Amino acid sequence: MPENFYDTLGIGKDASAKELRAAYRRLARQYHPDVNPKNTSEAESKFKEINEAYQVLSDPASRHKYDQFGDNWRQAEYITRARSSKSPFTWFNNARTARNQSNINPFDSIDSVFSQAFNAAGYTRGPAASRSVKEIDISVTLEEAYNGTTKLVETPPFSNISSNRYELKIPPGIKPGEKIKLAIGSQKNQQFLNCKIQIKAHRFFTRVGNNLKIQTEMTLLQAVLGGEIFVPVISGKKIALRIPPETPNGQVFKLKGKGMPIKSKPSEFGDQMVSVQVVLPQNITDEQRQLFEQLDQLS
């Protein structure tokens, strides 16, 4: 068993954030249970150790506490308070005063008395004290953000909760940067995970709020004489767009209601903005060139 989190990740205490991420990714790939089907239990144990080490060291505040207090870093606040007390009896006196003011029954069990004294003095313990909120990124495609989806989230380890998998329901219309709070663990030892949504770049569409933007092409003849083109929409279909005669290059058309769903109003949608770009003909024939020259003489 490695002596500390740095040993777990195989890095030194002076490792940069970039080196830390690289070590974590390498080890996570190496020990992920999915790639170790013949030795799942050992791989899972190692994977949990790697995750716990990374979660602590990747957070600057947690890493600073860990460097100072080692395995006792979670109790850093209490240790710091104790060290800053003016006398070794300061905390005891405060707790005694708080106890006298909180109507503690002297005939309660010793555990109950200590529990009440701790709470009255401003210290808490148990599930409420250990609750914390960590944050992870969840990547979804634009189509998943449009339709809504369910993601299987492998949670990082929390204090005394081991890593596990939970279902995260993502509603239609979710925006990049939005967070969904996921409750994990039992009711007695519940923790929360903020799942920050990241939406992958799309090869066709650009999202602007609830609207979508797309560029498409039209021929020179369509631009001059008018015509019809077919435009993809995020639902996966293609719809006809009527191009009026003498449409300038870069003209933007609005496809109403073909954008992203509005999360707070699932039955309403944004719009799709279509920018049409003229594609000039290539490798024209002599006859076509003559026609353009005649057109030039007429204009």
How would you describe what is shown here?
The structure is a single chain. This protein is of the alpha+beta class. Helix content is 36%, strand content 26%. It has eleven helices and 13 strands. The strands form five sheets. A four-stranded mixed β-sheet has the order 6-7-13-10. β11 and β12 form a beta hairpin. α2 (17-31) runs antiparallel to α3 (40-57) and α6 crosses α7. The longest helix has 18 residues, at 40-57. It is elongated, with a radius of gyration of 31 Å. It starts with a helix and ends with a helix. Residues 101-130 have low confidence and may be disordered.
Order of helical and strand elements: HHHHHHHHEHEEEEEEHEEEEEEH
Largest sheet: 4 strands, mixed
Proportion of residues in β-strands: 25-35%
Average of the residue pLDDT scores: 79
Distance between the termini: 85 Å
Helix content: 25-40%
Number of helices: 11
Radius of gyration: 31 Å
Give the strand tally.
Answer: 13
**Which regions are unreliable across 5 or more consecutive residues at pLDDT < 50?**
101-130
Give the structural class: alpha+beta
Q: Largest sheet, order of strands side by side?
A: 6-7-13-10
The outline comes out as elongated
Label this structure with key terms.
4-stranded mixed sheet, 36% helix, 11 helices, 3-stranded mixed sheet, 26% strand, 13 strands, 299 residues, alpha+beta
Sequence-ordered SSE layout with sheet pairings:
Blueprint: H1 5-9, H2 17-31, H3 40-57, H4 60-69, H5 76-84, H6 90-101, H7 110-120, H8 127-130, E1 133-140, H9 142-147, E2 149-154, E3 165-170, E4 179-184, E5 191-199, E6 206-208, E7 211-219, H10 220-225, E8 227-232, E9 238-243, E10 252-255, E11 261-262, E12 265-269, E13 272-279, H11 286-298
Parallel strand pairs: 1-5, 7-13
Antiparallel strand pairs: 2-3, 4-5, 6-7, 8-9, 10-13, 11-12
Helix pairs in contact: 2-3, 6-7
